[in-house]
Amino acid sequence: MSWHCASRPVIGNLWLGSMLTLMALMVLASTVVNGHAPISNQKDQGKKYTGAGTTSNLRNIVIGRCYHYMSLYPDTGDKNCTDIWQELIDAVQKKDPCKISEEDYTRLSLVSAQTIPCDKTLLWSRTNDLVHRYTKATQNFITLEDTFLGFLFNGLMWCGKPLRPGMNFKSCPAWNECDKNSISSFWKMASAAFARSSCGVVNVMLNGSADGDIARKESILRTVEIPNMDPARVSEVKLWVIDDIQGEDKNSCDSKSLLELKQYIEEHNLKYSCIDNYRPVQALQCADNPDHAACNRCNYH
Ligand code: APR
Fold this sequence. Notes:
- By secondary structure, the protein is an alpha/beta fold.
- The chain has 11 helices and 8 strands.
- The strands form 3 sheets. Strands 2-6-7-8 form a 4-stranded parallel beta sheet, with helices on one face.
- Bound molecules: adenosine-5-diphosphoribose.
- The site of adenosine-5-diphosphoribose (APR) has 17 residues, from strand 2, helix 8 and helix 9.
């Protein structure tokens, strides 16, 4: 009797221990089978990034822009706007926003594919505002942001949440916060596709009044667009070096930074040319500064 009485707690402890082990194993198995986040990953769900969160109403904006673009440019063809939205979601949701590669966007790029007419591509570096004012005013050239894919996503933010569906509306990685993030990988993919599909003369608007290199060493122009142009289809890369009309002339076609960029372009087997203050762009600057000396017709060069 006393043996039984003395041994009951031991048997009880063994039973309790076995049950706890069994329960732990069941939780582990359920985690593996159902793909629930392990406890360490669950902490990542609340991770705060330094960039803004996913743009509110992102779905409506993207689908709305998709129909708007097709109404502006009927040549785009009949794109399935809901499919395009779904491809964006599939590229990023349930994934770590710092582990999104350009390849994750391959399907999105395929469903948004577009033919770019030869001689119409206009690339840019450090001239974001002027170049888009120019393409709006003339409609003679196409920047990435004027293409279907660029128009859909320009100025928007998005990222998913590791192992959970839906978007993170609180914060997303900023451009340089991590190497392969949902935003930088998207724009690298889109820039590469745009450069690959360009043909004939490819124009590039650069800022002659900016400090430092005419195009940053890590710029999309240098690291993605120049290497992705096909020398068999691109007859020439034509640089336009535009000074701010009120600004200094820090770089022009004969300056060191331009000659270095020339060499880089030629190393990619592409032909090069350069023009300072391309007159049609200067004419646009003159619309805002009609009395400036450079806007006197006799001073045009
Ligand atoms: N940090 C923050 N934003 C960046 C960074 C960066 N390191 N690199 C690029 N960006 C984003 C920003 O939105 C910025 O305004 O790209 C924009 C342009 O950067 P620039 O140095 O002016 O130019 P570049 O990097 O050469 O990109 C422009 O890429 O978008 C395509 O076809 C387009 O030819 C154009 C080129």
